[in-house]
Amino acid sequence: MASLETPICEFGWKAVDFDLLGVDGQRYNLAKAKGENGLLIMFICNHCPYVKAIQDRMIRDVRELAPHGINAIAIMSNDPADYPEDSFDNMIQIAKQFDYPFPYVWDETQMIAKAYGAVCTPDFFGLNSKLELQYRGRLDASRKEAAPANVRRDLFEGMVQVAQTGRGPENQIPSIGCSIKWRT
C-alpha cells in the first residue's frame, strides 16, 4: 500500500464539474454540492487507514464548516474490483454507520479523480465561492493513527479563511494517504 503526498495548492485552479451518483440515490454536481462561500471536495475511501484515522475529525470539521457557508462532498474513486471494501454497497454502509453529514458519491469511471489530479485518500480540495482551488492540504497532523486531540486543525482553519476572504492560507502542509487504486 503506497503512501503518497498531495501536490502544492495551485491557487485559482477552476474546479471541474461532475455528475456522480450518491449513496442516497441522488446525483450530485458542483452547483448542487456548493455552499454560499465554497465547497470542500474530499477524495476518500472505506478501507484506507489514513481515512479511518481521521473519520471522526473529518465529520466534525464538515459539520463546523457548514455555518461558515462551506459545504462538503466526498468522492470515492478506488477500483472496488481489487478492494471490495470500497464497493458502492459498502459506501452506503459506511455513510450510514458514521452518519455522514455530506453526500458520498462514487466516481465509478475514475474520470473525476483524474480530472482533479487526486493522488491519495484523503485528498482535500478546498474551493472558494467561485469554485477556485484555495486549499490542498492535510486535515491535521494525523497519519495512520489520529494525532493528539489538541493539534492544529489545518483544514478547518484554512477553509474558515476561505469562507471569510475567498483565499486560502499561503502555507499549507500536504495531505498524506494511500494511493488511489486505479483500474488496470
UniProtKB/TrEMBL annotation:
Top-level taxon of origin: Bacteria
PROSITE patterns hit by this protein: THIOREDOXIN_2
MF annotations from Gene Ontology: antioxidant activity; oxidoreductase activity
Boundaries of every Thioredoxin domain copy: 9-144
Protein name per its UniProtKB record: AhpC/TSA family protein
Source organism (scientific name): Nitrosomonas cryotolerans ATCC 49181
